[in-house]
Specification:
374 residues; alpha/beta; Enolase-like, domain 1; TIM Barrel; 2 domains; seven-stranded parallel sheet; four-stranded antiparallel sheet; 13 helices; binds 2-succinylbenzoate; binds magnesium ion
Length: 374
């Protein structure tokens, strides 16, 4: 496909509610959007890097830099025929997976539109609805958290995930389980514990959690495998899984029994599909994680979640939980059964509200191909 323009924008979007994890509080997102124009079509990508390099080493600023100085010019200089060619085009740049995914996912969007099929169909999706869960941040008190859970259960969400850290764990689980003995409940530590906390982590087994997500170091497999031997509750890895090889290592070492797939964390659709397939072939279920995305990133997550092995409810939920006004039309909504219906129009299936995007933009740059040296 011919690349006519790559336009990178930074938008500021305040969250409806602050979101607190073991590594910090987010009140406003600084979101990077890539708009790629190709032969009359427009594809959109969203960078899932955080404002600060706390979830991974990438940040809004590092991704901006990588795209403007390296990845954007590479893509413009060597236009891909398919989204699946992006990893090869970007291969000389190490890491920077969230930056790479921003561009690769926009190319898949264009490819689906060119084929006249939905992004879900292009990826090989098999579902027309996906099951949804919510990820609930750390609150200032347990009663406040209970009120949030009550609201999300009433809205229909099928699984509640609680962010946890030392001091915000077993007492919280105990109060939640007492009130709702039968709901599907999980927790996510974002690497807040160490192996010396193993005796404490084993007490989580009492709360019938669906999984414990990333309890130990962000880059670890070995200590998670030692911990998993002591736990009845499945460990789910998020941060540790950067690609298919990581998934194979984690499965082989029994570091986890479930994998969270995030498009940005693994570098885009190609690698996300590879992780999905590797897990499926080995009987490991996956689900789609979230990174507080706007409607653009959310629409990519929705399409990915239609693949066959996404059997567990993901963290992909309604726009209104995050934004007063989302940048896509229609907004993403969740039914009272806790499901998102998959759009069947060509591409992502949610229009970008370009006027609103333009109004929210604080920085914009058009990227060109490398200058050809004669
Ligand atoms: O670990 O899943 C995570 C948000 C920011 C960084 C890391 C994580 C999260 C979430 C939020 O859990 C999921 C969402 O609702 O988008
Ligand atoms: Mg997580």
């Amino acid at each position: 496909m011919r690349i006519d323009a790559i336009i990178l924008r930074e938008l500021h979007l305040p969250l409806v509610r602050p979101f607190e994890t073991s590594f910090g509080v987010t009140r406003e997102r600084r979101i990077l959007l890539a708009e790629i124009r190709s032969e009359g079509l427009i594809g959109w990508g969203e960078c899932t890097a955080g404002e600060r390099p706390f979830f991974s080493g990438e940040s809004t600023d590092s991704a901006w830099q990588a795209i403007v100085s390296e990845l954007g010019p590479m893509l413009a200089s060597e236009p891909p025929a398919h989204g699946g060619e992006c990893p090869r085009i970007f291969r000389q740049v190490r890491d920077n997976r969230m930056a790479k995914a921003t561009l690769e996912n926009a190319i898949w969007d264009i490819e689906a539109q060119r084929e006249g099929i939905s992004l879900s169909q292009l990826l090989g999706g098999v579902r027309d609805v996906i099951p949804c869960g919510v990820s609930l941040g750390i609150e200032s008190s347990i009663p406040e958290l209970l009120a949030v859970i009550e609201k999300e259960l009433a809205a229909g969400y099928q699984r509640i995930k609680l962010k946890c850290k030392p001091g915000w764990d077993v007492e919280v689980f105990d109060r939640v389980r007492n009130r709702w003995p039968a709901i599907t409940l999980s927790c996510d530590a974002n690497s807040a514990y160490k192996l010396r906390d193993a005796d404490h982590l084993v007490t989580f087994d009492a709360f019938d959690l669906l999984m414990i997500e990333q309890p130990l170091w962000h880059d670890d497999f070995y200590y998670h495998s030692m911990l998993q031997k002591r736990l009845n509750t499945p460990i789910c890895l998020d941060e540790s899984i950067r690609n298919r090889r990581d998934a194979l290592a984690a499965i082989e070492m029994e570091s986890c029994r479930i994998i969270n797939i995030k498009l940005g964390r693994v570098g885009g659709f190609s690698e996300a599909i590879a992780v999905h397939n590797a897990a499926q072939e080995r009987g490991i279920p996956v689900w789609c994680g979230g990174m507080l995305e706007s409607g653009v990133g959310r629409s990519h997550n929705i399409a990915l979640s239609t693949l066959e092995n996404f059997t567990l409810p993901g963290d992909v939920s309604a726009s209104a939980r995050y934004w007063r006004e989302d940048i896509v039309e229609p907004e993403i909504t969740v039914s009272s059964a806790g499901e998102i219906a998959i759009p069947d129009s060509p591409g992502r299936g949610y229009e970008v509200r370009t006027d609103l995007v333009e109004r929210l933009t604080v920085r914009k740059e058009t990227i060109r191909a490398f200058e050809m040296v004669a």
